């Protein structure tokens, strides 16, 4: 392995990030599909082929955060979708956080695929009236030079989101190099996130691409938020037929002191 900071030029510090709500590998192309194709949400029909298509897209990224990945139930054909994507796209490291199980019919989890060596992985349940939401916390490197990445999927209700955002603010604190990515179900420019920006090192993005609904995106509710010491070169949404959300991507430059380690052979 080589230290990220030991490489030369901006490439030494650049990381390509992706966040995807994958809807358990399902595909929605119009609002009426939620009703007319509802049977597809509880059966594995077509989902492995959708994941194969997604695996071809995510291979160029260093860190990929997943939401609504099935951890192995009827609707996925009892496939751990995080593991499947990691192996299909040749990520050396992966972890997942199952949050909600409905008998053997469906499970929902956050996941992370990584080409960097993770030094610590923690699972946190998020507060809410209905349990089943979580935050996956991963640290790369050590001390103030490390990168902390959190993947989360927040509730639909504003009251529950407010409690969850306050919890995330405590979790992130003022760590100098932090990334929060996931389906936050609220605009990056909205007032709901003011508390997060006030209590952490995260900063409001200059540009927030629309990601929902995937077939005609008008709402920017999926985000990659970073600390002020991390430079964002670009944020963009990827057109892709999986899910009802578009994946959101970001190319970032880490400070020169970063000490994360890439897997041997990683680009």
Structure description:
With about 270 residues, the protein is α+β, with helices and mostly antiparallel strands. It has a single domain, classed as 4-Layer Sandwich (Deoxyribonuclease I, Chain A). It is built from five helices and 13 strands. The chain has helices spanning about 35, 45-60, 80-90, 160-170, 195-200, and strands spanning about 1-5, 15-20, 65-70, 95-100, 105-115, 120-125, 135-140, 145-155, 180-185, 220-225, 230-235, 250-255, 260. The chain has a six-stranded mixed sheet. Strands 6-7-8-9-10 form a five-stranded mixed sheet, with no helix packed on it. It has a two-stranded antiparallel ribbon with strand order 1-13. Strand 7 (about 135-140) and strand 8 form a beta hairpin. Helix 2 (about 45-60) crosses helix 3. The longest helix is centred in the middle third of the chain and has 15 residues, at about 160-170. The radius of gyration is 17 Å and the shape is globular. The termini are close together.
